[in-house]
Amino acid sequence: MSELLIADGDWDRATSEYARQRQAYYEVLRAYDRWCALLDAEEGPEADRRRELNAAAREPDPTLGGFATLEARGPDELVPDEEARRIYFGE
What is the value of pTM for the model shown? Predict the structure, then answer.
């Protein structure tokens, strides 16, 4: 927020932009948490297959489209859309 205010000085614009950035930031984190839960907590043949596909997808792309490095690099520039989900799950 302080960076936005320093850059512009317009409180309304800065708070709106901050809210937009915060929403996008946490949208990535929530999607990643949902995806991890599907891999870590689900049971059964479908869950086993999902884990196999995820492991196979890590071979050519250990970052899984950047989402596997989320904890180290943060969510900046990641978009949790359907394409990213397919990459993450190796579909």
Answer: 0.81
